[in-house]
Amino acid sequence: MMLTATRISRKLLPREVVLIGADDIKRGDWPLAVVEELIHGRDGKVRLVKLRTASGTLLRPVQRIYPLEIYDEGVSVPTPA
User: Fold this and answer.
1) CATH for 41
2) Using an 8 Å Cβ cutoff, are 77 and 13 in contact?
3) How far out from the chain centre does Cα 13 lie?
4) What is the pLDDT of residues 14-73, one digit of tens each?
5) Is residue 72 part of a domain?
6) What is the DSSP string of 7-65?
7) I need a surface site. Which of 7, 17, 33, 40 has the fewest CB within 10 A?
8) Residue 29 belongs to domain spanning
9) pLDDT for the residue numbered 37
10) Are 35 and 13 in contact (CB under 8 A)?
11) What is the predicted pLDDT for the residue at 78?
């Protein structure tokens, strides 16, 4: 976790459930998605996220992605066989 000036942030993980933020939709209506892939920029930082939603696959900037607050570092995420 990192402490920034206004909030605590953490890195996104593949297979994590997130909300996709939008200016024209109320926060309660933001769609859910699963992180499929993290895409790094030339500087090595995550810049884009490939997401799987109920309606298909999207690419969105990391600034518009909001992880759900149910994340627990002690619980391992099972990998598909």
Assistant:
1) 2.30.30
2) yes
3) 7
4) 999 999 999 999 999 999 999 999 999 999 999 999 999 999 999 999 999 999 876 556
5) no
6) -EE----TT-EEEE--TTS-GGGPPEEEEEEEEE-TTSSEEEEEEEETTEEEEEEGGGE
7) 7
8) 12-67
9) 95
10) yes
11) 56
